[in-house]
Protein: Exocyst complex protein exo70
Amino acid sequence: MVLKKLDKMPVANGNSAVLHRHLTEDFLSLAKGEGSHLVLEDGRKIFDGSGGAAVGCIGWGNKRVAEAVFKQILESPYCSTIFYTTKVQEDLCRFLVDSTGGKMARAYLVNSGSEAMEAAVKLSRQYFLELDPPQPQRTRFISRERSYHGTTLGALAIGGHIARRAKFEPLLMKNVSKVSPCNAFRGKFPNETDQQYVARLAKELDDEFENVGPESVCAFVAEPIVGAAQGCVPAVAGYFKAIQEVCHKHGALLILDEVMCGMGRSGSLHAWEQEGIVPDIQTIGKALGGGYQPIAGLLANHKVIGTIEKGSSAFVHGHTYQGFPAGCAAALEVQRIIQEENLLANVREMGELLSRRLHERLGDHPNVGNIRGRGLFWGIEFVADKETLTAFPESCHLAMEICERGLKEQYGLNVYPGAGSANGILGDHIIISPAFNVRSEEVEWIVETVGHTRSMAVGLAN
Ligand code: PLP
Structure:
């Protein structure tokens, strides 16, 4: 049998052996990444304005990272973490723990954000089993509506993403209840101050604890800046302090999901740094390895780790590929580059420019309901009516149309779409999350391109 050369493989889905996300639509065949561009097999170049789903953070084709991974694979491609560790895993976890100013005690590395969330859920349960005296009755979780925490069954159950849950609802654990997210644009009453809004949400959480029995809850789970599920929505000032107080009152842990908004995307390495709180457990992912290797993880504080150390001293959880050396090598090099090139300062500076220019260019657009975000993590939510904030009907596929036919086909700009209808009452949104080394002229071009009437008109014409 003669195999066709891989780079000449037809991309028509009907001929594909891949169980693609969609079985009949064709996919563009990606040949390589070059700096801030994606290059297709047919030579077309696309500017990557979102780093995939906020994954890419130092751009594509970085030789230093490639060489670090290559060297690691030659030296030690795999490590069975039952008996061994590697220097690269130790170094990466040390870097992560130190990056929290010692507030976190240990890091645990897996291969995807979903796995990190599964581990966080199990670690919080194990913490209560090993407390002295133990609290085995803590089996419940509280999270928020219109959230996404991953696609595996545990993570999906914690999340509130309606469309992604729907078909699997009977399989999902039932010990999770949901409260309202903190979304000033959608959730705050007219004339309500930020303080009143925060107090209302904190009360709702407190009531939910009382409702399910405060001693039954392991943890409250939330994303500091809601990414894919709502389109880069930061909480209003004081929210996280208030909800952490509620968690403390009831003895529950606070798990923050920083898979999408963390590792520098928000302008600080950890998004919680801007909230004046420290979670008990945090998860990280996408920008950890910047798309060079699949790597994600969790960090746990001294309270959690100290309790398990004194208890069984073993986290009852493990994966064949946890602490994968090549993944650690990639992440360590990506993080070194971010530090050496002072890219977090660029995230803040370019983030301010992006925010200002988006507001100037699009703030008055009749179908732009809200522009929000932090660092290089910005979302634009569209509305059919700016007075009533009514969303466009699902049949418009607005975000997808704007991204695919409006921006990618006409201008070669890649941003990340989110369908509001898939997740409750929100309008469609797009996410702009370029690499941390994006330049000001590129930011200007992204804004001009998104603001171009033809980009928007494609979606709005339907
Ligand atoms: N948590 C958040 C906030 C995410 O945005 C995602 C993925 O988009 C996940 C968890 C799951 O990560 P992964 O897709 O790597 O499993």
